[in-house]
Amino acid sequence: MYAVLGVVIIIIVVVAGLYAGGYFPGTGMTATASAKAYDTGSCTSASNCDFTPATLSVSTNTKVTWTSNSTTVHTVTACSTTNSPTSAECPTMNASGLSSFDSGASGFGSGQSFSYTFTTAGTYYYYCRFHNWMHAQVNVS
Ligand SMILES: [Cu+2]
Q1: Positive/negative CA dihedral, 41, 47, 50, 53
Q2: Measured in angstroms, how far is the CA atom of residue 48 from the centroid of ligand 1?
Q3: What's the 128 CA to ligand 1 centre distance in angstroms?
Q4: How far is CA 54 from CA 5, 26, 61, 85, in A?
Q5: For the segment 105-131, what is each residue's pLDDT rounded down to a tens digit?
Q6: Does pLDDT of 29 surpass 50?
Q7: 8 Å CB contact between 69 and 113
Q8: Which fold has domain 30-140?
Q9: pTM of the full predicted structure?
């Protein structure tokens, strides 16, 4: 009797954990969206090198994946105090309650990607550490 109850409790805990972890596609727990870091053969200004789309709008619990087709490396770095951006890199800083993210100081190159799951609604500005004109935003609602 108690053994059966124990097994049932374990199953409930495992299923709840998988659900929270987004392991059931189609349940609406985790959606996906994509963006790009691109260039047109060189990367010297916003006219030939930037993020697209400039504004990406998604729902909460969306995993956004940035891919690069670029000839140089880029970062996807949140405009948070954690990352200490300059005013050129981040004309507008993120609200202090929003989580920070960063693809890493070495950047990612052509064919590589970086993903981040947005769990809290808000406007997330981000930039590239290597090209201070590269900045864009994700609107999470
Ligand atoms: Cu860049």
Answers
A1: negative
A2: 11
A3: 5
A4: 53, 28, 20, 18
A5: 999 999 999 999 999 999 999 999 999
A6: yes
A7: no
A8: Immunoglobulin-like (2.60.40)
A9: 0.80
